[in-house]
Every structure is written in structure tokens, then in C-alpha cells.
Design goal:
326 residues, 2 domains, 3-stranded antiparallel β-sheet, 5-stranded antiparallel β-sheet, alpha+beta, 43% helix
Length: 326
């Protein structure tokens, strides 16, 4: 069945299409008529409501019309809709469709059940289910169904189109403001990182220079009695060294009065692959042992090696420069 929509009347006529002229049968005016196909059950439902004024739709609710269906421009039906998820389809509607469509009632019942299932799915996804010449059924925010007259549906469309440009402008302005703030934050972070990186490398360079100077001063001032020195090493040197010179360094990590402790600890470190040893000296008639790890490295790297060994042994490290006897 083909129905027609009048752009003047802003509603749908349930009358069958009778001519091909752009004459609206409802308002008798020359207007743009849009022809389209309507589900046969929706057409029968509209005709049934026009005759009987009340119908119940399965798991949707009950529609009741007070007075006549609208036939003139500007008229609206006085509709009372009651939402009821347990509603069943009016038996009279099934008989009406079976009679007009000349079909078996059982078949009509099955087809109507499928039709209203699709209608509920349509409503549940946020679309309006139209009852021809009556209005729409839609779901509200709580999920319940409610009736929406044609007049309110058209009004909602007009209001939306009127205020839409005014709503877009603040969003655009807000988006630009957020982008500008984000850019400023990113620039501030990058500037801070660059500042920290600059100071890190400058301080690292200064630390290397200071460490080299301290070690050179130590070499100049370090004097040890040869009686206390191991016969294989000479621990005193007045030679001036540069940071690029390779030196043998004792990294002393422990002092103990126990020869057993000195032997056990150095043997343990040597088993781990370290070049460890110990030396002895007298203090107040007591013999002490200095435990150390020997390493050959650049003078400028001595501070780094000391820190590395300190972390490895979890002990403070004292530095002693040595060189092989000539």
C-alpha cells in the first residue's frame, strides 16, 4: 500500500493514493507530495485505530484516541498512551487484519508478533516508531516508552536547527583554548627537560675536572713510610700526573685486625673474578689489614670506578695510587 506525505499538513494520510497530481487529499492544497511504502501492518493499525479508537500492542502498551482522527492541517489527535511491558496484542486487531488481508488468523498472529518485536528493537536503539496519523512512540532516558505527538516532534526538529549554530561556536572556542593551553604545557615541559639536561652535562663535566684535580693533589701530598709498604709496591709518588694517564689504583674498602677475615674476604672476591688483595700496617702496637681491589684505569676515571665499586660492595671506598717498582 502506498501512502502520501503532505509538506503543508506535516503528517501522513492513511488514505490510499488515488491520483498522480500534487493535490493533498487532506488539505486540498497544491503541495509537494512524497510517496513512499508503509509496512502493511502499520497501515492496518492506523485504520483500526480510526474505527475502534483503542488498541493494545504486544509488550509496548495501549493507545487510546479521544475523538476523531485528524483530517485537516494543524489538527492533532487526542491520544492517551499507557506503557505496559506485559501488554498483549488486541484480538480485534488480529481479526481486522485477517479479514482485510484475507489471511489465516494464526499466520497473522505470528506475523504481528514478529512485526512488534522489530518495532521494539527499533525503539530501543533510540528511533521513533510511528503510528500513522497518530504520532510516535519512543523510549525515554529511563527506558520506558512514551507517546510523542507530531507537533512536538516537528517542534523539536525546529528548535534543534535554530540553536545548532549557536552551540557550535562555543565548542570551537573551547577547543582552541584547550589546544593553546596544551601547547603551553608541552613547551614548558620541554623547556624544563632541556634546562635539566644542560645542567646535568655541565655538572658532570665539572665533577670530572674536580675529581681529577683532587686525585692529582692526593698524588702530590701522599707520602707513606717505606717500612709500611709491601715489598712489591711503592705507594708514594711525587710525580705529577695528567687526567689522561693510566694508573694502578688500590680501592680500599675495609680495614680489619683479623688476618682470617682478610684472607677469607679477598679469596671470596678473587673467586668472583675480582683482583683483590690485602696489606698490613701497625697502629698503636696493633697489626691491621687493609683490604682492597686493584684496578688499572685512566686517572680521570678513578672517581667513576670508585663509585662503581662502592655500589658493588656497599661500602665507602678509599683510594690509594700505586705503581710497579722499577
Amino acid at each position: 500500500m502506498r501512502f502520501q506525505y503532505c509538506t503543508n499538513f506535516a503528517t501522513i494520510s492513511f488514505l490510499k493514493f488515488r491520483n498522480k497530481k500534487n493535490i493533498c487529499p487532506s488539505c486540498s492544497s497544491f503541495a509537494q507530495i512524497i510517496f513512499f511504502s508503509v509496512n502493511k501492518f502499520d497501515a492496518y493499525l492506523s485504520e483500526y485505530l480510526n474505527e475502534h479508537k483503542e488498541v493494545s500492542l504486544e509488550k509496548i502498551g495501549t493507545i487510546k484516541i479521544n475523538g476523531a482522527m485528524p483530517t485537516q492541517p494543524g489538527e492533532t489527535a487526542d491520544v492517551l498512551f499507557t506503557f505496559n511491558k506485559k501488554a498483549s496484542t488486541t484480538a480485534g486487531l488480529i481479526d481486522f487484519i485477517a479479514e482485510h488481508a484475507k489471511k489465516n488468523k494464526s499466520l497473522v498472529t505470528s506475523d504481528l508478533e514478529s512485526h512488534f518485536t522489530q518495532a521494539r528493537e527499533f525503539i530501543n536503539i533510540g528511533k521513533n516508531y510511528e503510528i500513522i496519523n497518530v504520532g510516535f512512540i519512543k523510549a525515554n532516558n529511563s527506558g520506558e516508552y512514551e507517546f510523542l505527538p507530531y507537533a512536538e516532534a516537528n517542534k523539536s526538529i525546529r528548535i534543534t536547527s535554530t540553536h545548532q549554530p549557536a552551540e557550535r561556536q562555543p565548542k570551537t572556542n573551547n577547543r582552541s583554548l584547550i589546544q593553546m593551553i596544551t601547547l603551553l604545557i608541552v613547551l614548558a615541559i620541554l623547556g624544563g627537560l632541556g634546562y635539566e639536561a644542560y645542567h646535568y652535562f655541565i655538572n658532570k663535566k665539572n665533577d670530572s675536572v674536580v675529581a681529577a684535580n683532587n686525585i692529582q693533589d692526593t698524588v702530590k701530598t701522599l707520602v707513606q713510610d717505606t717500612a709500611k709498604a709491601d715489598s712489591n709496591t711503592i705507594t708514594a709518588s711525587t710525580k705529577t700526573l695528567s687526567p689522561s694517564d693510566t694508573v694502578n689504583v688500590r680501592y680500599i674498602f675495609e680495614t680489619t685486625a683479623s688476618i682470617l677475615r682478610a684472607r677469607t674476604r679477598t679469596e671470596q672476591l678473587n673467586a668472583y673474578g675480582n683482583h683483590a688483595g690485602f696489606d698490613s700496617f701497625m697502629n698503636n702496637n696493633t697489626k691491621f689489614y687493609s683490604l682492597f681491589i686493584i684496578n688499572s684505569n685512566l686517572l680521570s676515571d678513578t672517581a667513576k670506578v670508585r663509585d662503581s665499586i662502592s655500589k658493588y660492595l656497599q661500602k665507602p671506598i678509599r683510594i690509594e695510587l700505586v705503581q710497579q717498582a722499577q
